[in-house]
Recover the amino acids of this structure.
């Protein structure tokens, strides 16, 4: 594989990680402001739970892990599983949580902390393209939630959007 292309993918991945870190902060702020603003206007009980947990992806069964992630998971699990001499419940839970959240930065840190060489898997085009796609999907998801759309709307458009949100949730509650 072309080393320059791999270097480009690494840079793109690093940029998207920082972009996600920044967007996570904005997203959490948008959710807080959205919840505060709409608290008395719509029934936020179910929606609030969804908004608070929407940055977490549901636990993916092991067989559905992407091939590179599955290889890394298996390699780390051999060392971190509590049934192994070198493993602990806490470290294994952290690995599972990081895999569930698709937090490959933390997974790579865990590998380094525990002396597990995952470079043959990580230093590949497949690894970076898969994880770039995951980060792009996360950004797209966050930026298309009602909370972010409302947060990013211009003041003049916010009132109209607010009426649509209230109307939507009023109709949804009548149907339920």
């Amino acid at each position: 594989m072309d080393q320059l292309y791999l270097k480009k993918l690494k840079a793109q991945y690093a940029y998207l990680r920082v972009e996600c870190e920044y967007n996570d902060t904005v997203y959490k702020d948008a959710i807080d402001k959205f919840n505060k603003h709409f608290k008395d206007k719509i029934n936020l009980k179910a929606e609030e739970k969804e908004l608070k947990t929407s940055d977490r992806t549901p636990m993916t069964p092991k067989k559905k892990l992407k091939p590179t992630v599955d290889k890394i998971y298996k390699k780390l699990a051999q060392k971190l599983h509590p049934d192994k001499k070198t493993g602990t419940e806490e470290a294994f839970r952290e690995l599972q949580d990081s895999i569930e959240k698709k937090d490959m930065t933390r997974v790579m840190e865990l590998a380094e902390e525990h002396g597990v060489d995952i470079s043959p898997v990580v230093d590949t085009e497949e690894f970076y393209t898969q994880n770039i796609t995951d980060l792009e999907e996360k950004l797209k998801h966050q930026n298309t939630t009602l909370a972010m759309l409302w947060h990013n709307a211009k003041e003049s458009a916010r009132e109209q959007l607010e009426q649509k949100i209230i109307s939507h949730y009023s109709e949804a509650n009548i149907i339920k």
In short: Residues 3-175 form one domain. The two ends are 55 Å apart (CA to CA). Residues 3-38 form the longest helix (36 residues). DSSP finds nine helices and no strands in the chain.
